[in-house]
Task: structure prediction
Amino acid sequence: MTENEKLFLACLRFFFSKKYAEKELRQYLKRRYVHKIDWDLFLSLAELHGVIPLLYHSLNAVAWTNIPEGVRKRLEKAFLANLAINLFMSLEMDKVLGALAKVKVGGVPIKGVTLSEEVYPDISYRTAMDIDILIRKKDLKKAEKEMLRSGYHRPHSIGKDPFPENSQGFFFA
Result:
């Protein structure tokens, strides 16, 4: 296992079990080991797996000053951008659910920001790029009408039948 992989896994273990993993993470972040990390590869891996916020929190909690300044800045920038996206998504989800409730359409939010709010300490820990809401099939037409009335739109590529069998409803702000 490479030094990058060891540090990556130590950060994730620390996030999920601080009590048992802090010593391991501190060991990897000692000054004599930090230079062995390919930070570009480390950050690319983190981005690929959508765990930059978890790594940011772990590294920041244990040995932030041992991390090269340029890497700290990149992590912080990515963390803050993710936080802004999640705050926006959370507000947008509330707007959509409110609009649906006005026309008596129930919606169940799943994944993304909803998971962040339920599972993690706060919404900054998880990445999300969209809002997923389950709606009963019988309510789809009413939901579509309300979403369009509320200023959302469908992409042009979906076709004439907005809800063919087994389709997903796509709307954009």
Q: What stands out?
A: Residues 88-158 form one domain. Helices lie at 3-16, 18-28, 31-34, 39-49, 52-62, 69-102, 112-119, 140-149. The mean pLDDT is 85. The chain has eight helices and two strands.
